[in-house]
Specification:
The chain is α+β, with helices and mostly antiparallel strands and 283 residues long. 34% of the residues lie in helices and 34% in strands. The chain contains 9 helices and 11 strands. The chain is globular.
Length: 283
């Protein structure tokens, strides 16, 4: 079976699990489609009678290793995921990771029994948010005036150092981790690195990933020295307007311990649709 065929099975399994459990799984498809040698994800699968019944993905993100997986309804409580987890630990042990995080939808009742068997400590939670114009708190005049001083444009190849430095500054990453992340991200055809300019000078950045008329905003940050000037708000509004013209939905993620960002996103019309919990493995 080819990689493309296996990933189609993974996509089908994801839809099946999400519909059955009423959850949203974070499988980082931009990384699944890349080989691990070029910065993509490692993943393991279990088949029974040519049917995909189990999946586990391992994602190196910013120096950490994140793990997320699923088991087909009707095949659970048979040790399938435990077996995948044990195989994954052998792969993870070969890497040099700052920490190992297991990710599960907060609403998942099937993930909790497995997680309770592991030596874990709660690390953080993230909200997944989607833009809904009916919830925007901005007037049309405010939305119009907010975009006048801020320019968004595609990043050039020779501006990688700027993007890396902004990631270091905005997400407390080491230069090595930010460089590795950038190298893996730039290989994905559906991604677009954006430079945010104020008065012709770089003031921030974001990364857009679009598939099936849904755009995700990742790595969104504004230079710490320039925060409080409305740059983030203007950048979001421009991005929303552009994606609306292309008939794309707009999505993003925000950590629960970042209330200022959450307030900004909600004021621009984003609403919470899912919550993901992260647990640090301390075994």
């Amino acid at each position: 079976m080819t990689t493309i065929e296996t990933l189609k099975d993974v996509e089908e399994l994801q839809h099946r699990c999400e519909q059955f459990d009423g959850i949203s799984l974070k499988l980082n498809w931009d990384m699944l489609r890349q080989s691990s040698s070029s910065g993509g994800a490692d993943w393991l699968v279990t088949y029974e009678d040519e049917l995909l019944v189990g999946f586990l993905g391992m994602y190196g993100i910013g120096g950490d290793m994140e793990v997320c997986g699923m088991v087909r309804p009707g095949y659970r409580r048979r040790g399938i995921f435990t077996s995948l987890w044990k195989r994954a630990l052998n792969i993870i042990a070969r890497g040099n990771n700052n920490q190992l995080l297991l990710n599960a939808p907060a609403a998942s009742s099937t993930a909790k029994p497995f997680l309770s068997t592991l030596p874990l400590s709660f690390n953080h939670s993230e909200y997944q948010m989607k833009w809904d114009g009916a919830h925007s708190h901005l007037s049309s005049s405010e939305a119009s005036s907010a975009t006048e001083a801020v320019i968004l444009r595609p990043a050039r190849e020779d501006e990688s150092a700027i993007l890396i430095e902004l990631d270091c500054d905005g997400f407390n990453m080491t230069h090595e981790d930010a460089s590795k992340m950038y190298q893996s991200q730039k290989l994905e055809d559906m991604e677009e690195h954006i430079i945010i300019e104020l008065d012709g000078k770089p003031a921030g950045k974001m990364r857009l990933w679009t598939e099936e008329n849904e755009t995700w905003i990742y790595g969104f940050t504004v230079d710490k020295k320039l925060r409080g000037l409305g740059i983030g708000r203007s950048s979001l509004l421009q991005t929303i307007e552009r994606e609306r013209r292309n008939y794309n939905g707009v999505n993003l993620e925000v950590a629960l311990d970042n209330p200022n960002a959450l307030k900004l996103y909600e004021s621009c019309g984003f609403v919470i649709v899912n919550k993901q919990d992260y647990y640090r493995y301390i075994g």
